[in-house]
Amino acid sequence: MRRALFRTALVSLACLAGLASADAAGRRYVAPPDRAEERIVPMYGNLPGCDDPAVLSHLTNSFDSREATYWGPLQALSYDRIAQLGFRSWGDDFIPRRFCTARLMLNNGVFHRVDYSVRENLGLFGMTWNVNWCVAGLDRQRSYAPDCKMARP
Known about the structure:
alpha+beta; 4-stranded antiparallel β-sheet
């Protein structure tokens, strides 16, 4: 009786682990196919450009909100010298990103370099693009240290 229970427990564990096993009739258990490929959202790389007003507006709003909430009275006023650093720089198998850099004028009259990336399907509920950014000299928590290098490709 103990052997039968032990054998049944081992067969059950093997089935749960996805291993092939045989039942009393000699039929083999095969794990169901993985359905992950059905859940994958296709990514086409349809991203707005570095100088797109929607991208710069998102960056400005995000910067202004962070500064007002945590650090002080700085606000983004304007951008110039906008350039693309790379597009899908890490390869086609990764989330599409457009890497950009620009010069940001703040309300204190000082220019700072801002490195940012526009990323596909990382916005609200994975439905739209998002912007990840770092302002050189204002990365106070060293999230992208050294000097915003980790925000670039």
